[in-house]
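Postdoc handover notes: sequence design on the structure in folder B. Input C-alpha cells:
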C-alpha cells in the first residue's frame, strides 16, 4: 500500500514537472491551463490548442497499449464532442522499457482493438464512441510520446529555469521547489479560469519569492536534502533573535507520531530558545488534536516540570483573560524564576481570536493548510508541512541531522 501511494505521488510530481517544462519553454507567452480541457496541461495559442495528458508508469514492465486505453478514450471523447475545434492531443507517457522522445502514431486497427475491450471501466466511453467517432481524423490530431524518466525531466526543468534568466545558484533550493508548489496550488483550484498561467507571470512570481516552500509536494522531491538545509538557514535568521513572540500551530493529522513526539519537541524548543532572561516573550503552542490527547500532553508536561498557562480555571472552563496574562519573571540570586514557560491551548475559535488580537512576530504553522480565519498581516508566517518531527527539529536548529 505504501509503495502504491509513493507511485501516485511520483505521478503527480511527474505531471507538475512536465507542466513546468511546457510553461518555461513557451516563448509565445501563451495562456497555459493546469488540469485543462482533457486533463493535466492545455497550451492555448491563437491558431491551435495543444492538450497534453501525462502518465507515469515507472513500475510497469514492457509497454502495452492496454495500459493507456483510458487516456486515449478520454481524448477521443473530447475530440468527438469538439470536432470543429483546432485541438492537438498528445499523450506523454513514461515507460522504463521505451526510448524517451519516441513518438508513436496509432493505427485505426489499434483503436478498433481498444473498442473490443471488455473492461467495465471503459464500457460507457466505448459505447458512446464506437462506430460514431471518425477514427482517422482523430488519429491525425493524436500523438503518443514516450516521456523522459523523472530524473531527466527534472534536470530539463532546472535548465529551463536558468534559460528564463533565473539565478543558477538558487535553482535547487529556491526557484525549483517554489515553481513546483505554484503548479500544485494551481492544480487544486476549482475555478478553471483561475487555473491558468503564462511564462511571464510564473517568472515574475518566482522572482518575488524569498522563502523555500516546504510542503507535501516539495518534501517528495529528490532535492529534499537541499530544501531542508536551505529552510534551516532561512529560519535561523529570526530564531537567532532573543526577543521574538512566537506562535506554533501543530496538527496531529499532519505530524507522524504526534502523541509520542510533541512533549519532547516542546521541551527541546524551550531548552533551545526560551531559557534566558533575554527570552522575554512567552511562546504559545496551539495543538490541533483530540481532547484526550491534549489532556495527556498537559499531564506529561507537568510530570516533566514544564510549567504552562492553559487558561483553564476548571478542567473545562477556559478564561481568555487568564490565558492572556504574561508570567511573573524575577531573579532569585543568580537564578531566573518564571511563573510558566509557555502558553498551551487546544485549537478552537478562542485561540484564533487571541492570535488575531495579539499579533506575534513569527507564526509557525506545521500543517498542510493555514486557517483562513487567521489575520496574518504584519506577521512573519512560516508554514512548514513536514510529517516527520526529526525533520522539523532539524530545520528549527534543534538538531544537526534529520536522519
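Designed sequence:
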Amino acid at each position: 500500500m505504501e509503495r502504491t501511494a509513493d507511485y501516485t505521488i511520483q505521478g503527480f510530481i511527474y505531471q507538475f514537472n512536465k507542466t513546468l517544462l511546457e510553461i518555461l519553454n513557451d516563448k509565445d507567452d501563451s495562456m497555459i491551463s493546469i488540469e485543462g480541457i482533457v486533463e493535466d496541461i492545455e497550451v492555448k495559442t491563437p491558431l491551435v490548442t495543444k492538450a497534453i495528458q501525462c502518465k507515469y508508469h515507472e513500475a510497469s514492465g514492457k509497454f502495452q497499449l492496454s495500459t493507456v486505453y483510458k487516456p486515449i478514450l478520454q481524448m477521443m471523447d473530447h475530440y468527438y464532442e469538439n470536432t470543429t475545434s483546432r485541438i492537438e492531443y498528445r499523450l506523454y507517457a513514461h515507460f522504463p522499457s521505451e526510448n524517451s522522445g519516441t513518438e508513436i502514431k496509432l493505427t485505426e486497427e489499434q483503436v478498433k482493438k481498444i473498442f473490443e475491450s471488455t473492461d467495465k471501466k471503459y464500457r460507457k466511453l466505448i459505447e458512446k464512441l464506437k462506430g460514431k467517432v471518425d477514427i482517422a481524423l482523430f488519429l491525425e490530431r493524436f500523438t503518443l510520446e514516450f516521456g523522459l524518466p523523472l530524473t531527466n525531466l527534472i534536470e530539463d526543468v532546472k535548465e529551463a529555469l536558468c534559460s528564463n534568466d533565473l539565478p543558477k545558484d538558487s535553482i535547487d533550493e529556491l526557484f525549483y521547489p517554489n515553481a513546483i508548489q505554484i503548479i500544485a496550488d494551481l492544480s487544486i483550484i476549482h475555478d478553471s479560469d483561475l487555473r491558468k498561467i503564462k511564462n511571464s507571470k510564473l517568472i515574475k512570481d518566482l522572482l518575488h519569492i524569498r522563502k523555500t516552500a516546504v510542503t507535501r509536494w516539495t518534501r517528495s522531491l529528490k532535492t529534499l536534502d537541499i530544501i531542508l538545509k536551505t529552510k534551516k538557514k532561512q529560519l535561523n535568521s529570526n530564531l537567532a533573535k532573543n526577543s521574538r513572540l512566537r506562535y506554533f500551530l501543530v496538527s496531529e493529522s499532519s505530524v507522524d507520531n504526534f502523541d509520542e513526539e510533541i512533549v519532547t519537541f516542546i521541551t527541546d524548543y524551550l531548552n533551545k530558545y526560551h531559557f534566558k532572561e533575554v527570552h522575554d516573550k512567552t511562546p504559545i503552542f496551539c495543538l490541533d488534536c483530540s481532547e484526550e490527547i491534549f489532556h495527556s500532553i498537559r499531564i506529561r508536561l507537568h510530570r516533566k516540570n514544564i510549567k504552562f498557562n492553559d487558561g483553564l480555571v476548571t478542567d473545562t472552563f477556559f478564561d481568555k483573560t487568564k490565558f492572556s496574562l504574561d508570567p511573573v519573571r524575577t531573579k532569585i540570586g543568580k537564578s531566573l524564576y518564571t511563573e510558566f514557560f509557555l502558553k498551551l491551548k487546544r485549537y478552537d475559535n478562542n485561540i484564533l481570536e487571541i492570535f488575531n488580537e495579539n499579533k506575534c512576530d513569527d507564526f509557525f504553522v506545521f500543517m498542510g493548510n493555514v486557517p483562513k480565519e487567521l489575520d496574518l498581516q504584519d506577521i512573519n508566517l512560516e508554514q512548514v508541512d513536514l510529517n516527520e518531527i526529526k525533520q522539523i527539529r532539524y530545520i528549527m536548529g534543534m538538531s544537526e541531522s534529520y536522519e
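Context for whoever picks this up: The chain has a mean pLDDT of 93. Don't rerun without checking with the PI first.
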